[in-house]
What does this fold into?
Amino acid sequence: MSLTSEPRQPTDRRSEIADYFQGLAFANLFFLFVIVLIGSVVFSFGGRLQAWLLPLAALITLIASPVFSGTWRKAALVAMTFLICHCAAYGISAYLFDGSWDGLAYHQEAILRLAAGWNPWIESAGKYGHGQELWNDCFPKASWIGASAIFIDTGKIEAGKLFHLTLIIAAAAQVAATLLKLTKLKALPVIFLVALAAFNPVSIYQSTTFYVDGMLSSLFTATVAALVLYLFRPQWRSLFAVGFGICLMSNLKFTGLLYAVLILGSGILAIWYLQGFRSALRMAAFSAVTGAVAVLFLGYSPYVRNLREQGNIFYPMYGRNAVDFTEPMRPANVAGKDRITRFLIANFSRSEYVHPPNSTRLKFPFRVYSSEGSACGMADPEAGAFGPLYSGLLLLAAGAALLLLSRRETRQTALVPLLIAGVLLATIFSHTEGWWSRYAPQAWLLPVLVGLACWQMPVRSLRWWLGSAIVVVACANVLFVGYFFARHEWGYTRMMRRSLKEMAAAKQPVNVYLGHFRSLRERLRESGIKFSMSDTKPPTDTNTVWHDIPSVGQAVWSE
It folds into this structure.
């Protein structure tokens, strides 16, 4: 891929496969977008989420499939794959439990309150329960609306996590479509690059939680891939995929809105260079409309309400009575440093949880410690969070990028992936917390893009071998993260199911203290457990035997 050369004209077979993947990516993005859109329309009329929302969104997506698939044959294949993916994602998500702090503390709580009738446009979450109102009222809500729609229809709170998996599929499908249409890479290199782009370590270890950073990573990847495809082969499907991705990113997380602005701004400049000023004006108009829909309508709560009530759309991160909620989790040797130094310290350290006053432990790249596997089972490790080999990947990528830029012919061929990597760097350092993987999950794509650039070089050249080394090391890193994540999640789910069986077999109702994790009450209810919930931490100097409920904090029960 090069900004100065014509994109490859694909063969008919290759083009058909690319169109299929593009249609699948579009369907998965469109489905969640429609759920959030309908939910916002309902809220704007003072209503609440209802059981008809999910089937209506699915019906609209299936009816629209011929439009974004091109032919009825492709539409049928895309629709079938779409349904299989969502059914499989539902089964996996419903079975595996979320054991994360944020997932249990406020994400599930927000979902339960939306299902109970909360309308975030006109009222506070506090009307439907107590605790976590600051986050529930003031944070973006797209993932909560999607999960709540699933929960209302299925009665299974954990099933709402399925969008993690379907967005990973969307990212993979869109990257596949872009590579097949714009490069000459054969099938095997495309498969490796697609897998690495989609299976971001953050997406992997958050896939069974209600955290939103993994979803943001998938949306970022899919949106950028769709935008690159639109730049070189302008089609409305690619452009609308960008629009849906931007709308969802902006309403997953505050940083998503910042990234959306930078992505669209970069796209406008690129179109100006490639297609001229008039095309850039059209892209600017599209971006303005997309931004207005994302912020003023889909994001009315929180953006408009935050501005009106707190004076800043990013409250409580900024504005009156702002809260620095990352300060208690910032390692001592990261605090006080500039943005680039923070990033290097965090990613050249051992993979682990590190809270102040402790510091991260720096390590030599490519060295793997046995203790690093435990960090892969958690949703938000502060140090080495992209996996134990990521620091080595950064070194390989930096060396390969310098080699690619050192000669004119290689610089020209590798220009597009390296320019995309430059935009990624701008997004990573656009705020102070880019050192932490959960706030800049797109940093994983840096070595992947350099690997792609190297694989554009002649086979068995030095730069090609460097690209191969990057891909091999990245695959080993993903397998390491995936193995330890799967082992931890399976162990946690089994432990939780044993605990629920013990509670169900005890004399009913059982007494429970859930602490910060009041949302666990739904897990108990779905297991048929009758319980009496106390808001007071039980004393330790009594004859009552309290049993732990598996979680990241104190939650206990007794007969």
Observations:
- Residues 2-7 have pLDDT under 50 and may be disordered.
- The CA atoms of residues 36 and 423 lie 28 Å apart.
